[in-house]
Fold:
Amino acid sequence: MSCGNSCNSNTSSRRGFLTSMAASAAGATAGLTLAPGITLFSPAQAKARGKGEAASSKVRWGMLVDANKCDDGCTACVDACADENGWQGEGNPATDAQWIRKVKVTDPGTGKSQSLPMMCQHCEEPPCVDVCPTGASMKRADGIVLVDKHSCIGCRYCMMACPYQARSFVHEPVSGQRTRAPRGKGTVESCTFCVHRVDEGQQPACVEACGGTKRGALTFGDLNDPESEISKKIATYPTQAIRSDLGLKPGVRYMGLDT
Amino acid sequence: MALRTIISVLVATFVFVAISSFAEAAGRVTIPEPAKGKGDQCVADTSFMRKNHPSLLNHQRDDTLRKGIRGNEFSLKECVACHAVEGKDAKPVTYENPEHFCRTCHTYVAVKLDCFECHASTPDKKRQANELPKKHPPTNALSSWRDLSAQTCEGG
Structure:
């Protein structure tokens, strides 16, 4: 469906028209049909999948982090993630779970510092999945990389393989878990893109919290949809994947980085 | 021969009665009476659920986690929500408590389950406020655990 450089306003509007036609013909679960072929969507509604519907590879979830809007002292995303998924620390910083963390990077040449969140990058070619001996580390059809804790044996190969150090091992018994985010001793865990929220058509907790601070440094959406906000930003501004040299094609991209 | 058979039967009956009364006197483990769910009826017949709930849960967990299929009926979350047992503090008890719905039977049959090492064994707070999760159509239910002894096992 890519139209490369030949896109103009006419083809764009035609695409939009065809999209709404297809959506109304398929009986979209969310959206108000104003007239035949004209359907009113809100972005959040359009993403929610119907009951019993599997995740589709037509969607590729991704996140864009704008480092220019991310403040050094702000941990709203980390706090929101910890609360949403119930991974507050046990008082052992060396081994505590860390689904998302704030990283401060400084250019030694200029001394300029930047702060940015680091979490599972939801790679298209995830090395954690390659090395997992039980198949517990897995990538869902829509690109979300997860740990199936039912088959995780806690070997931690995936933690070694991840170049982003995005995964944690649960060392101690856990109680009081969130129903939406099961987690327990002896298994590896990491950012899930708040898969329980995404499946309901919501944004991940970190994105919502960052928006709540008026910074809006995080954008979440479908990278396969050229009309999504994240796709438009990526197509407009220079962005980069961290350690792009590894060819992992992460779903998380950063903009505003100096190097 | 006939007399010997009669004697054998009498002896066997006597031994059985003696053992039974001995077991009663020694205080047998009481047959569990798990708490009833909040809805009118479970997602399937009680006898069916009793036998098949592990495979139903195992199957659906793979569908949910690996394929991203949400909202199907054999959900551990729904079991926990519907069968929550309130403790003395009027809050749902966790699996640590012997009164917990799952634990009543699993202790009796000595089958260890590790679901609640990761999963929450009490309902979501939001769900607690809403009370009844959803109503299921009534089917031919068995009224209690004891009725199982009157049933023949289905399948293998």
Remarks:
- The mean pLDDT of chain A is 86.
- The interface with chain B takes residues 49, 51-55, 138, 140-142, 146, 148-150, 173-180, 182-185, 187, 195, 199-200 of chain A (CB under 8 Å).
- DSSP finds eight helices and twelve strands in chain A.
- The first strand of chain A starts at residue 32 and ends at 35.
